[in-house]
Amino acid sequence: MQQPAAEPYVKDPVLLKKAAKASFIGNFVEWFDYASYGYFATVIASVFFAKTDATVALMSTYAIFALSFIVRPFGGIFWGHIGDKYGRKAALSWSILIMSGATFLIGLLPSYATVGILAPVLLLLLRMIQGFSASGEYAGASAFMAEYAPPDKKGFYTSIVPASTSAGLLLGSLIAAAMTAFMDADFVQTWGWRIPFLLAAPLGLVGRYMRLNLEKTPAFKAFEESTIEKPVPIKNLFANHKKTLCIAFMLCSLNAVAFYLILSYMPTYLSTQMHINETQSLLAASISLVAYIGMIFTMGKLSDKYGRKTMLIIASVLFIALTVPLFHMLSMGGFLTIVLIQLVFSLLLSVNDGTLPAFLSEIFPVEVRYSGFAFTFNSANALLGGTTPLMATWLMSKTGSQIAPAWLLVIASVIALVATVMYKKSDSVSILEKG
């Protein structure tokens, strides 16, 4: 499945590499900022909530994690409008600035012991600002790279986006692992946890600078310069692309659940449910992230060769077949077994995530590409991704089963499989093709 031949792309390899670097670094910074919260969830629970039951405090922390996702569909509409009306570069340059500012301020927040209930309220406010910013990032960076890349390399170049997302997670994981291993626990509890949040300011300025020095994508410039009537992106999207919206949302459900369950929640799951040393659980997460980053480029290339639908179907089927057995095996072995299981999960996730950015960029035409991608991706993450840690913790507390989170992933995989099989290229037609 390729883009229409009429859609232009960048032929200069120097400009293409420049765009790839800027996309990688910008997305890396945004998701390092956003993911730091997850890796310090247990510390944040004790800093920002009253000294009650540990499970209640952790669930409160994840509730804020989930609530911050409420704004993401609205952010998707906002950033999608900016990106489809004024260009991908404009949206991406502002989103990274807002993310970095909010993350930096989290590092300065007072604790519950200092200001009481105001502490979690301020934390929620800044997490919602983070969520609003993040809603423009993944979709925008994917659309940007898809419109820069040659038709036969879109899978490879758009796989930069999930790879950089995971690189941000990896840095957060490594910092958290190093701090828990080599720093005094009291220091981590009081000031140490703030370090990754305070790093957001300088990192964000670097990412913004790189993005400001990029050109608009050729496809968007061609659309911008066309004489065809240009309806408001979000109105066009909901009026003319309903089936594509539905399919995209269903596809994103697997990414939402799998990403947050495997790459964000897993360290907490291993330490609280499997009673694995916290440093070891973070180290296992770091190892799996390294493997995921390495594998995802290969999956992007394979999607260029064998097709997006084929790769997405393979990912869904493998998740359905292997998730529950792999969760059962987590409790049967030591550290090495856990690492191997996480590597398998990373492989399965990379099959899906290495393909999804190109697929979602291709099924929406240029005039609603940012809006369609951002709205569906962020709606799925708001309803399913952001609630995954909270739902997993709640399910285990209610059922007493340590493998309860696995069924969340199986259900999401079935939904994604149905969507992939349903999709036909003729479902979404550009106004440029009609005109």
From TrEMBL:
Its main location: membrane. It is a multi-pass membrane protein. InterPro entries: H+-coupled_symporters (IPR051084), MFS (IPR011701), MFS_dom (IPR020846), MFS_trans_sf (IPR036259), Sugar_transporter_CS (IPR005829). Residues 19-428 form the Major facilitator superfamily (MFS) profile domain. It comes from the Bacteria. It holds the Pfam family MFS_1. The chain crosses the membrane at residues 31-50, 62-82, 94-126, 155-179, 191-210, 244-262, 282-299, 311-328, 334-351, 372-397, 403-423. It is found in: Cell membrane. Gene3D superfamilies: MFS general substrate transporter like domains. Keywords: Cell membrane, Membrane, Symport, Transmembrane, Transmembrane helix, Transport. Belongs to the major facilitator superfamily. Metabolite:H+ Symporter (MHS) family (TC 2.A.1.6) family. This is MFS transporter. It comes from Enhydrobacter aerosaccus. The lineage of its organism: Bacteria, Pseudomonadati, Pseudomonadota, Alphaproteobacteria, Hyphomicrobiales.
